[in-house]
Amino acid sequence: MARYTGPKAKISRKYGEPIFGPSKALQKKAYPPGQHGRGRKRKQSEYAIQLNEKQKAKYIYGLLEKQFRNLFDKASRKGGVTGEVLLQLLESRLDNVVFRLGIAPSRRAARQLVTHKHITVNGEVVNVPSYMLKTGDVIAVRERSKTMEVVSSSVAVYSNRKYPWLEWSASDLAGRVISVPERELIPENINEQLIVELYSK
Predict the structure, then answer these.
(1) Do residues 118 and 173 share a domain?
(2) What is the pTM of this model?
(3) What does residue 13 show for φ and ψ, rounded to 5 degrees?
């Protein structure tokens, strides 16, 4: 299955949340898409609820099923609470951190900046969106890419967002990973326990 490139508003309406960022369509039509969107809601099975939560997480972070499963397996092998570790691994991806720092307006845009070699990690160009960052890593915009309009406009609007596990320098267009984010500091509305239960079957 290829990465989802369809209508973003449709997915946001399906889950009743701005999955890909603020959505006017979600505000105007706060019900699921389709001809039965406004109809009576059917009671979902336990499996359906768990599957929906996993699918929502995949859409939010822009992962394919195999990538997501591999990340879950990695989280389950680590010490600690599996669901929390999974979210920490998702947050540690390079494309997500580029988005969190405000260098890009969305994770999709962040992924594109990374793959087009506009981002460096510790001074070296890295073009792998799934690159896992560690505490102390410095993420920056490549010198020749600092004047790009997409970067400057995004930084002007989004770099004021503060995340306690990240440090940002507007003058250098660079950020640093200070620590691994605790669960309560991850703003995504995901019930990770449902995902653990789904994969544990």
Answers:
(1) yes
(2) 0.84
(3) -70, -35
Q: Which domain holds residue 38?
A: 8-89+188-199
Q: Are residues 17 and 46 in the same domain?
A: yes
Residue 166's region, left for phi above 0, alpha for psi from -120 to 50, else beta, is beta
Tokens representing 55 are 């699918």
Which structure tokens are listed for 175?
A: 């950020």
Cα separation, 97 vs 120, in Å, equals 12
Residue 130 placed within a domain: yes
SS3 assignment, position 124 = strand
Beta strand extents in 74-190 (DSSP E only): 119-121, 124-125, 138-141, 166-169, 174-177
* CB atoms closer than 10 angstroms to residue 14: 17
Q: For residue 19, tell me if it sits in a domain.
A: yes
**Closest listed residue to residue 25, CA positions, set 40, 7, 43:** 7
- What's the rounded mean pLDDT across residues 40-55? 85
- Contacting residues for 125 by C-beta, under 8 A, at least 6 apart: 117, 119, 142
Reported confidence tier of residue 8, pLDDT bands at 50, 70, 90: low
The verdict on 43 and 83 lying in the same domain is yes
- Residue 161 near residue 100, CB atoms below 8 Å: yes
